[in-house]
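Case study 2.
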Amino acid sequence: TEAGITSINSDRTTVKNYNISEGTFPFSQAESIIFDNKTLWVGTLFGLCKLDEPERFIIAPESESLPSQMIWDMHWDNSTIWIGTQNGVAFMTSRKDFQSLTNESTNGALKNNWCKNILKTKHWFITSHDNGISLWNTSFPASNPEIWKNLAFERLSISRPINDMAFDGRYLWFATSKGVFQLATPAEKFFGDFLSKFIVYGKLNGLASNNIKSIISHKDSIWVGTSEGLGRIKDERVQMIYPSSGQYNKNIRKLYASGDILWIGSEAGVQFINTAMVNRNE
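Prediction:
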């Protein structure tokens, strides 16, 4: 959060805050968070932190090997930690330090070093930046620009900036201030019939707003966090999800899924819904 880290226990009855004023978190705010099945990592605009003990976060020694201490996004692909920074991308090596990918080290293939959003699929690493979207086939050396794909904003209908990205197992999805953009080319054709065309979902298709802050692939659907509520895209159909009871803040900033539960970070705090109940009530 903008005031540190907050944990909620599994039965959702106990809340604990970690912040700079109590000495339990080293910086004023957190930008991103991941768990690698062993350690809880937090990215900030001042470096990488990790949970050292149950009561305190520390500045991670591994942070020194990052290309920049200004961290915008992190991703765990079940084997490797990836970090998007102000000066390139980094991934953790077997030596437990970070190797960097920059415009220089990729021989110009990474078109911009400010990597605001990152995503990793089975064979591709994707990042969005000020110039557009860069895709690297991780089966080959990153220093070979021939195996990269780049989508430049000035040649695309997609709107900048990109606020979030998702992958549904076949297609890439992008959250922007002008709607949700689905890349029409499936991942298995990135090396073949790659076309930089997009399918757009917005207010004209049923979303309450074109201002999309977060998207996530979950339970055969793309869940969409807008400034006017929660939406879902399934089988090319758009549906807005409204609660039948309880308080509800429409201005959604981040989505996260765990089991059937979809966690919703909003301007008013954290909310959640049981997506199994949504499917049951269709």
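The radius of gyration is 19 Å.
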